[in-house]
Amino acid sequence: MTVIRFSYGAATSVGRVRQVNEDSFLALPPLFVVADGMGGHGAGNVASRIAIEEMTACAALRPLFAEAVLTALEHANRHIIERDEANRMGTTATGLAGLETAGGDHLMVFNIGDSRVYRLSGDRLEQVTVDHSEVQELVLAGVITREQARTHPRRNIVTRALGSDPVLHADHWLLPATGGDRYLVCSDGLFNEVPDDVILALLSNGGPQQAADALVVAANEAGGHDNVTAVVVDIDSDDDGAVETTLPREVLARDAGSARTRVDIAPQPLQPPHARRGPLDSGAGDQRRARGPGLVDVGLAGLGLADAGPDDYA
User: Rounded to the nearest 10 degrees, what angle do helices 208-221 and 196-203 cross at?
Assistant: First the structure.
């Protein structure tokens, strides 16, 4: 069975406007997750940390399989609802997981909310996930363009989130672990400030940590109106021949060619899921980094509360 090797880096910042960073992240191979909390101080940051705590426990499972990841998301959803139902706190959760399967190792991309996973393959940047947001539905309906969605007044309204509904609806995809591919897991504080062509340029240069740092700096320099988190993951695998499959829980056939929003240079899109409707001191210098496993207390590193030393993981 092929062993997937990961090299990665991560950075997060409160931005230039917000007073509290409600983003949390996990960079603990084989699992990489970004959670963007909602509900204000004392709510959104708590929700995102609950999600990351559940995913941290999931990362320790061997072998790691798709249902374990989905179950961890369901546990996080339930715990967030139980913690503070009155305030309706919630969080997005999106990420990348290395799975061990009978047919060879694969990558799982999963998403609930409007945080994103991008894939950089060669010089092609593709958005793998589909936003669960009102503006994404407007884009799919042809009412607004992808570029107009970046500045639309309702761009922050999500239609799915952990903590919003006892019945969780997370989308997930299975992808081949192709050596040389680079993945970006990020909160909307990045792509709402930085256009895709700039993301492509910054993601294409340097190692994973350098790229993560550069992306967060770019978001802050563009205004830093929101918290921003970027986790960059490089894949080093000897098995490039795995069959690509994508089996989200719901498939909307009529949107097969358009629902996977992407930049012009993206490869042929995967089959999209149906978008179901549902509802620190500031400054660029407040930036936390994680570069590979190096801490005994992986929970702090995963939450972005402590630095981790540079390393690769197999």
Answer: 150
Peptide bond into 30 cis (omega under 30): yes
Residue carrying structure tokens 């406007």: 17
CB-based burial label for 97 (10 Å; 0-12, 13-18, 19+): buried
pTM here is 0.76
Using a 10 angstrom Cβ sphere, with 0-12 exposed, 13-18 middle and 19 or more buried, the burial of residue 19 is exposed
With residue 218 as reference, give the H or E element that holds it: helix 208-221
- 145-154 contacts: CB < 8 A, separation 24 or more? 146/261, 147/195, 150/191, 150/192, 150/195
Q: Does the CA dihedral 230-215-131-92 come out positive or negative?
A: positive
Sequence-separated (6 or more) residues with CB below 8 Å from residue 102: none
pLDDT at 202 over 50: yes
Sign of the C-alpha dihedral, residues 240, 244, 249, 250? positive
Contacts of 302 (CB under 8 A, 6+ apart): 25, 26, 27, 28, 52, 55, 56, 59, 290
8 A C-beta contact, residue 190 and residue 215? yes
167: left (phi over 0), alpha (psi -120 to 50) or beta: beta
Closest by CA position to 290, among listed 7, 91, 27: 27
Closest by Cα among 304, 254, 291, 306 to 275: 254
pLDDT band of residue 85 (cuts 50, 70, 90) is: low
State the Cα angle at 262 between 218 and 59, rounded to 5°.
Answer: 75
User: Could you report the per-residue pLDDT of 145-178, keeping only the tens digit for each?
Assistant: 877 887 787 777 889 999 988 998 899 999 999 9
